Every structure is written in structure tokens, then in C-alpha cells.
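Hi,

Apologies if this is the wrong queue. I'm a grad student, and the batch job for DNA-binding response regulator from Vreelandella lutescens produced an output file that my downstream script rejects. I'm not sure whether the problem is my script or the file. Here is the sequence I used:
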Amino acid sequence: MRILVVEDEQKTANYLSKGLGESGYSVEVARDGLDAQHLINEDEFDLVVLDVMLPGLDGWQLLQLIRRRSQVPVLFLTARDAVEDRVKGLELGADDYLVKPFSFIEFLARVRTLLRRSPPREREHFRVADMEMDVLRRRVTRQGERIALTNKEFALLELFLDREGEVLSRTYIASRIWKMNFDSDTNVVEVAVRRLRAKVDDPFTHKLIHTERGMGYVLEDRT
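Support response: The file is valid. Your script probably expects a header line. Output copied below for reference.
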């Protein structure tokens, strides 16, 4: 889990970085709002710990910029203890608000709670054998050759890659890709897998999508 701490007071920043690091988290520290904005635009974090009074951009402005981009959990950690400040922070989109001075044990408990609530970040890139998928660019290649897929084919392949090595039942595939309850008289899954194989497996010697009779399908490198 990666945490961005935005704190201009060096002693507090070092204390948080050390404590979170010892608790098993990867920590990045920004000393002002502009540095934090750059890091948020360039990287992905699982949680942002944010002071209000910052040079460059203050915490209120930075939170608004964050919320235009993502729903990453934000915990305000600030000396601003007025009720109206708490209300403002939560109304702008913060997930929690903790006032300084604070107990590190309470702070860590709130961090863990927010991280449990946040959905896992989706993977942006997959590679199995000579196949690569760039999720953000919607690009799939094998042996460096671009493969054109429909939206459903792309979603199906992404599911296989995300669950590499796991046998996925037809019922599970139907529920994930078509959001439907599986009807044994419907061959939509078989047809979709056949069409996907025709593009990503048939033109190549090394096959990646395999049928497990009576169970479903699995994508794995069996070399």
C-alpha cells in the first residue's frame, strides 16, 4: 500500500513517514501543495494524508484537485480544529478528519480503516508469455503484433489475464462480462471464447487459453 503524506512541518512529516514505514506501508512525502499536486498527477496512491495549511496550494484546494481526478481516500491531519473546518473538509470530499496533536495509534487505526474501505486498484498492464495488454491504452499485442479486439473481447481477455492460472467457470464469466445469470441453454460464453481465441491464439503456435472439460477456461503459459 502506497501512502502520500502532504505535510510542510519537517518533524511531523518525518514522524509520520517513519511510523507508517515501520507499519509496512510505502510512504512518499510532499512538503507543499504544488509538489503534492505533481506527485498525484504522475503516480498512484492508496491513501493521501493531507494538512490544510500548506505553501503553494492549501489543503482545501489540493483536495478539490484530487477529487476531480480520483476517489483515492483522503485523511485530513491538521491543527484546524474548528467545527466549520471539519465540516468543510468532509463536504469537499475528505474521508476522515483528525486534529493535531494526535495519537499515532489512533491515526494508524484510521489509516487502516480507510485502506480497508478503498477498492483495490485495477491493474494497468499485463504480460503472459509473448502477450501484453495495456489497459489504459486499450492495446493488446502478441510477439509485438497489434491485435484488434471488440469491447467484449477486450473485457474477456482482461478477465482471463487478471485471473491468470485460475479455471473460470462459464457461470462466472457470464456474470462478470455480461452481468447475467447463466443459462445452460445459452452458448454465449463458448462463442465469445472461440472468437477471442481466433484472434489471440489461432495465429500463433503457442496457445494461452485452454479448456478444462466440464469446468471452464483458463489462461496460462504451459511451456
